[in-house]
């Protein structure tokens, strides 16, 4: 595979782009049928694992936590002091979120979360990590080129903003509390939660209101 | 180990390419790779650290070439064989030589198992050696086993920023010892300390167990 293919097609699975795909499909299928034959897995359990992270657990969870922290000072205090307990009050808990820490972005400090060694990510509040979070470019550069990584997301911070990068090297899981956008005073907690993006809770994006659309243009109000 | 997985500070991988929240998986084989890994993990035969070490032990060129869920499949097959749940011959042929020695995690227990997770905090007798604000140096060490002390931090001096209590020690857990725990600290390193004139200011924080650290 050429270098070009590697960067651009590496994580997509269209047959024409990924020569190893059919081999992989067969390999995983063979492993599944072997494990079922041996009684080591319950095929119905596989669907529950997938369904949980496709439909039940995702970044909408984290967005609710953020919106509540923006609107309820008592909750925010609890969240900053004991994130695991405060987050558990929403029912968000368990695997890959046993020990939570929340990092507050301010005018002076911007936090960015990475796992340089693998893919550690706070599943109960953000779901499963996107491909880029697990990929070499992010894992390599977040620690020594954070401003370059932010620029890849169209995020520019002033030189006076201190960037703190958090490398998730143990079982602590980090959630960024992004800054509440200006002009959102009248919004309900629910409407605020709709503004909170996955990327802002990893720390690669800041938020604005009205929200930016995917191509980076201001959406109509 | 000084493997290809330890990527912090490497150059040449290109830009980070953003991706929408959905789809969560890119193709059915990723769903299967993910679910098989979690379902087999549910058999309780290995720790998360053993499973990370199984992925890291791949030859570096292979690790760098693989997509993410390929690492998981590699790691899973390694664990299944090493723990005696399947034989290499069964993996090759795809045919079971006999029933497994354990029973599957049933579907109706999956959600609860995910909700419970597995806390890593433990009680230890020894008092914590460091306090918040202490200056500490990460040891210059290069174990061939699993470690969570990234290369880019080894030998560098930082400041203890947070104390997390004692946690199961990844390095020994990866070798099958689920009991050993050590005090765990979050240490802040100035960008200049890590990258010299090529740093961008600011700091990098990492969670480091006491055996990785010495007073500075």
Describe the structure.
The complex is a heterodimer of chains A (221) and B (216). With 221 residues, chain A is mainly α. Chain A is built from twelve helices and four strands, in the order ααααααββααααββαα. Chain A has helices spanning 3-9, 21-37, 43-56, 59-71, 73-81, 83-88, 123-126, 131-134, 136-141, 146-152, 189-195, 198-202, and strands at residues 99-104, 109-114, 162-167, 172-177. In chain A, α4 (59-71) packs across α11 (189-195). The termini of chain A are far apart. Residues 1-15 and 214-221 of chain A have low confidence and may be disordered. Chain B has 216 residues and is α+β, with helices and mostly antiparallel strands. Helices cover 31% and strands 18% of the residues of chain B. Chain B has helices at residues 28-41, 48-56, 60-65, 68-82, 88-93, 110-116, 170-173, 191-195; strands at 121-122, 135-138, 157-168, 181-190, 203-209, 213-215. In chain B, strands 1, 2, 3, 4, 5 and 6 form a six-stranded antiparallel beta sheet that branches. In chain B, α1 packs parallel to α4. Chain B starts with 27 loop residues before the first helix and ends with a strand. Classes of the chains: A mainly alpha (221), B alpha+beta (216). β3 (162-167) of chain A pairs parallel with β5 of chain B.
